[in-house]
Write a structure and sequence with these properties.
39% of the residues lie in helices and 15% in strands. The protein is α+β, with helices and mostly antiparallel strands. It has helices at 2-7, 32-54; strands at residues 10-15, 20-24. The chain has a two-stranded antiparallel ribbon.
Length: 74
């Protein structure tokens, strides 16, 4: 998580039964690819830990994560 906070502070998150949401802002001057890689690393480590705990293998979701641009008028 520290890798994510370094490039994109997390303002809010929602844990749903089958998915989750993060509200982040990429820091000015940060590389968007670095932020994407940080989230990818987080998701991969979570999947590995979950699979180990559940004695399973493979991915947990059907799709890769998605991102949407939210523009604030503040």
């Amino acid at each position: 998580m520290k890798d994510i906070i370094a490039v994109a502070p997390v303002y809010a998150y929602a844990l749903m039964p089958k998915h989750f949401h993060f509200l982040i802002q990429i820091k000015t001057g940060s590389n968007e690819k670095l932020a994407s890689q940080a989230f990818s690393n987080l998701f991969n480590s979570y999947v590995k830990a979950f699979n180990k705990q559940q004695n399973k293998s493979g991915s947990l979701s059907r799709r890769k994560f998605r991102k949407k641009l939210k523009v604030s008028s503040i």
